[in-house]
Design goal:
By secondary structure, this protein is mostly helical. The longest helix has 31 residues. It is flat and about 65 Å long. The protein starts with 18 loop residues before the first helix and ends in a 10-residue tail after the last helix.
Length: 207
């Protein structure tokens, strides 16, 4: 629960999310108080932080809604939605908004959603993998769907390899290239946090 943590920057206990998520939670702190309040986070600053935090979530969900709206007016193959689905999103958002804006799951779900949209779009597969890498740096769960992206990003010429020619050299090289790129992106996003914070940046692995 994001608003249940008064100061995520100075906690000594391990945090369940990687550093990118901690940065997301900490960002409003700098906007409401600056560095001088990190050791003396007042109730007034906490209230301002909560307000800003929910505002950030509102902006983020608005971007998600705009993408869904775009898919309604300009469907592209599998990328489409219908009016009932659009209305369902709005209605559930109104009822669950206050709950969703109090947790990290909305951001994580949004990053996964954007990853799939990019994967199914006509953009190069690296765009989807970069977004997936951002999601993995937010929480490790998206790593579980990485195989879907590995296979889903392959050109159609490799589809038959999944059934009878798995050890095809070009097929394996294409898979290796994607694994290498995703690993590099995950490491590249995480590296600045590790350089700045050292081993404590790995604390989420012990949660």
């Amino acid at each position: 629960n994001s608003t249940g943590v008064s100061n995520p920057l100075i906690q000594n206990s391990n945090f369940e999310y990687p550093p990118l998520a901690i940065l997301w939670e900490a960002l409003p702190i700098f906007l409401v108080g600056g560095d001088e309040q990190l050791d003396n986070f007042t109730q007034q600053a906490l209230a301002a932080w909560k307000h800003l935090f929910k505002t950030f979530y509102l902006i983020f969900e608005s971007v998600i809604f705009l993408v869904i709206l775009w898919l309604y007016f300009k469907p592209a193959g599998f990328l489409n939605t219908d009016l009932p689905g659009l209305c369902l999103y709005v209605v559930t958002g109104l009822f669950l908004g206050n709950f969703l804006y109090d947790r990290q799951d909305l951001i994580l779900g949004g990053l996964i959603f954007f990853s799939f949209v990019l994967l199914l779009s006509r953009l190069h597969w690296t765009a989807a993998f970069f977004m997936l890498a951002a999601g993995i740096n937010f929480k490790l769960v998206p790593a579980l769907i990485a195989p879907i992206f590995l296979l889903g990003s392959l050109p159609s010429q490799f589809h038959n390899c999944l059934y009878g020619d798995f050890f095809n050299r070009k097929f394996l090289l294409a898979i290796l290239k994607r694994i290498t790129f995703l690993t590099a992106m995950v490491g590249g996003i995480f590296a600045p946090f590790y350089i700045w914070g050292g081993k404590p940046a790995l604390g989420f692995l012990l949660y």
